[in-house]
Amino acid sequence: LVSVLSAAIIVYRLPWTWKCSKLLMKFIHAGLNTIAMILAIVSMVAVFEFHNAKNIPNMYSLHSWIGLTAVIFYCLQLFLGFAVFLLPFAPVHLRAVLMPIHVYSGLTIFATVIATALMGITEKLIFSLKSPAYSASPPEATFVNCLGLLLVIFGSLILWMASRPHWKRPPEENAKVLRPIGETPEGTEVESTMTNSSNVDKPDLRINSEAARKQNLKFDEAGQRSTM
């Protein structure tokens, strides 16, 4: 879950994927999340079956509580992502409202998964190491503690990449994806220019009334295209 979910998070952030179509990246993002969810469900079924076979109580530790909560919210996240962002039925304004929530909840679930993994490996060490005990710092304990530190570093790097603006997919690439069928490349360049010009402050555009009127028309057209 940690490895596949992290790949799904940063799939939009890799520069060599920016030349791919936005629709293709959506399918890759959804496919990786689906694989991660299936693996998580299979692993949870295996854990319950193992506990039942060994007469070990289920759902008594904080690790199990947080882990089950993360999987449940992850399933909801995936279902809503399919319904709102992948299928072409949700209105544009709904997607715009839900996108920040979708991103924040995805990063929160990923951080929760990292925390669950850390608690799980610590719990396993405490129960498994008897002679010598975990408190005696045997090589197994040192190895797993180092693994936990690597998980923290890995998770921090993923969250850093997902939160930096310069790792975002460039808007002009989105404009190329959204150009109508039959539009010339020149039209795409104009569309990219209009999209980039929307970042200019309006007070700087007060050259004259005619130029301001034309610029406002460009703003409106770029805004309509960028929200498709």
TrEMBL record:
It is found in: Apical cell membrane. Its EC number is 7.2.1.3. Its main location: membrane. It catalyses: monodehydro-L-ascorbate radical(out) + L-ascorbate(in) = monodehydro-L-ascorbate radical(in) + L-ascorbate(out); Fe(3+)(out) + L-ascorbate(in) = monodehydro-L-ascorbate radical(in) + Fe(2+)(out) + H(+); Cu(2+)(out) + L-ascorbate(in) = Cu(+)(out) + monodehydro-L-ascorbate radical(in) + H(+). Residues 180-228 are annotated as: Disordered. GO terms for molecular function: metal ion binding; transmembrane ascorbate ferrireductase activity. One of its GO terms (cellular component) is apical plasma membrane. Keywords: Cell membrane, Electron transport, Heme, Iron, Membrane, Metal-binding, Oxidoreductase, Translocase, Transmembrane, Transmembrane helix, Transport. The keyword Electron transport applies. Its cofactor is heme b. Residues 190-200 have a biased composition (Polar residues). It is a multi-pass membrane protein. Residues 1-163 form the Cytochrome b561 domain. The chain crosses the membrane at residues 23-45, 65-89, 101-121, 141-162. Residues 201-228 have a biased composition (Basic and acidic residues). InterPro entries: CYB561/CYBRD1-like, Cyt_b561/ferric_Rdtase_TM. PANTHER family: CYTOCHROME B561-RELATED (PTHR10106), PLASMA MEMBRANE ASCORBATE-DEPENDENT REDUCTASE CYBRD1 (PTHR10106:SF12). Homodimer. This is Plasma membrane ascorbate-dependent reductase CYBRD1. It comes from Acanthisitta chloris.
